[in-house]
Amino acid sequence: MSATTAEQAGRRVEEVLDRLAENGDAQACAAAEEVVRVLMEFYGSGIARVLDLLGRPATRPPADPLGPLLADDLVASLLNLHGLHPEDAPTRIDRALSALPQPVENVGFDPSTGTLRLRVTASTGCGCSGTRESLRQAAVDALACFAPEVTEVELESGAPREPVLLQIGTRPSSAPTGGRSSAAL
After folding, report:
1. Is 80 within the bounds of a domain?
2. Is there a domain that residue 183 lies in?
3. Gyration radius of the chain's alpha carbons
4. Residue 153 to residue 54: CA distance in whole angstroms
5. Extended strands (E) in the chain
């Protein structure tokens, strides 16, 4: 795949906009120009973010030099959009879930349906459905950037029950100590 230069891309965009203008549909032409502006802003923001992340002075070099880029929502979404993200889907899913305001367990991802099943691993606050829905929506939002192949998120009802621990201890002795106090022993 050969790289397109900025000049080539600009010419192609102008050709498409000129063809739309020739058709006389002013609304279609205006919409196409708006799409171009929005995309330019999106990519400009992504490039600016990359430069910002790479230009920050580090107190010590990161173990993974790509780490700050891969952890950024905007950069990650651009990499995913173009199939350039170097991490596999399970790693990107885990990255997205680690950013949630509440811990969840990944119960399983079905790539054929795009469904990710999650289990809440801690209390969701009041236990009301709105809180669960807000957690589900937070997962959907985080996954949109890091793992767009996840198209549906299902929260399993209830966290797994903690095992009940049986407290075993010694009973205070009720038997006589033979006239001696335990302090004398």
Report:
1. no
2. no
3. 29
4. 33
5. 104-110, 115-120, 152-156
Residues 51 and 92 placed together within one structural domain of the fold: no
Structural domain count, the chain: 2
> Within its chain, how far is the Cα of 143 from the centroid?
4
Q: Tell whether 115 is covered by a domain.
A: yes
Domain range for 47 is 12-57
- Per the DSSP assignment, residues forming a β-bridge with 116 are 109, 153
Residue 164 lies inside a defined structural domain of this protein: no
Q: Is residue 93 located within the same domain as residue 134?
A: yes
pTM of the full structure: 0.65
CA dist., res. 185 & res. 169, Å (int): 22
Q: What does the pLDDT profile of the chain (185 residues) look like in tens digits?
A: 567 888 888 899 899 888 888 888 888 889 999 999 999 999 999 999 998 888 877 677 667 778 888 888 899 989 988 888 999 999 999 999 998 988 899 999 999 999 999 998 766 555 555 588 899 999 999 999 899 999 999 998 764 555 556 666 676 666 555 555 545 44
Task: Output the domain CATH number for residue 104.
Answer: 3.30.300.130
